[in-house]
């Protein structure tokens, strides 16, 4: 039997990414917008989207709200209030067909909120430090332990390394050079003996 459990995950295999994974909870949270199922709450109640957006493209029936998510990203989009809506058809005949699940984003832009978010950033003096040159990591060399015969910084498809020159076209005909020192094939009469005569 193996000395490891294939279903367990080792602590040294953890990789950090920018993806956030959310789980539904029964306890109330501070987020009052995100919900599973139910009825959508729109950013602007006076201008709701057209009902045709929530229709199944397979059976033409209305889709059910699967998820409504508060999706603000103030670091990248200051002043933008964003919500994501995921809709799905309940009918079994529509499952796994194109158009049975639909998603869209609702955005409301507030210029004053964007200005207030940008204003403190403008007040701070911008200090730029010179970027330290990080050595590039050759992934193939790291994984397999073999040095590449080609420099990692060079483009193998670049035309500058071609033998004809920097600006050459690899599909162009080679220039014909006419020289006076070109030797003409000699006459067969000058040969001492042919292969047919030797046989």
Automatic annotation (TrEMBL):
Signal sequence annotation: none
Compositionally biased residues, Polar residues: 155-167, 176-199
GO biological process, one term: maturation of SSU-rRNA
Chain residue ranges for the region called Disordered: 155-199
PANTHER family in the record: 20S RRNA ACCUMULATION PROTEIN 4
Protein name: Programmed cell death protein 2 C-terminal domain-containing protein
